[in-house]
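Review form for a predicted model. The reviewer records the input and the model, then writes brief findings.
Reviewer: anonymous (R2)
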Amino acid sequence: MTINQVPPDVAIWAADEFINYFENFSSIEDYLRYAKKEVIGKINNFSSIDPDYSLKSEFFNEDIHPEEMDFEIKFVGERFQNSLPQEYYVNLLTATSSAVIEKNIPGRELRWIVFEKNTKKIIGFIRFGSPTINSKPRNIWLGKAPDLSIFNRHACMGFAIVPSQPFGYNFLGGKLLALMCVFIMHEKL
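Model under review:
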């Protein structure tokens, strides 16, 4: 069925549903708070399965010296051995991030959750993806628009580099995650 084949009554129904859903929000901030509460509520439902479970228990909140820390990157998604599930990544990142987290992103992507090994707590989330098709600042920096058939095979972008809190604040966790991205990707190339 194409858009021209949608009967008018179905189109009106769909528009009304869309309007009814979004009329509950006066701003994008209201929508983001609502979405975050939904995810946190879903995650907190695990407490009915495990009474000791707390969302806070997932994240690094330890008092250890940085020299005692050791980090481990775990891949996300079924295509990797010993990886973490996509839903786990998306739910915890949504609970952590102030931005909207998209579940399905077109193009190539690679998702990581970074743990502190000794405490087995999450310090942050990273998502790499295919470069954007058009980026004026990048094109100015390169001197012209790149040949995308070549550029896409040799470049990636960090779309999400999000430290968990209080690790991000106490240890400049966002800077550490960004450094990990650059160092590890440089080593792989």
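Findings: The helical segments are 8-22, 28-44, 86-96, 136-142, 148-154, 167-171, 173-188.
Further findings: Strands lie at 71-75, 109-116, 121-129, 157-163.
Recommendation: see findings above.
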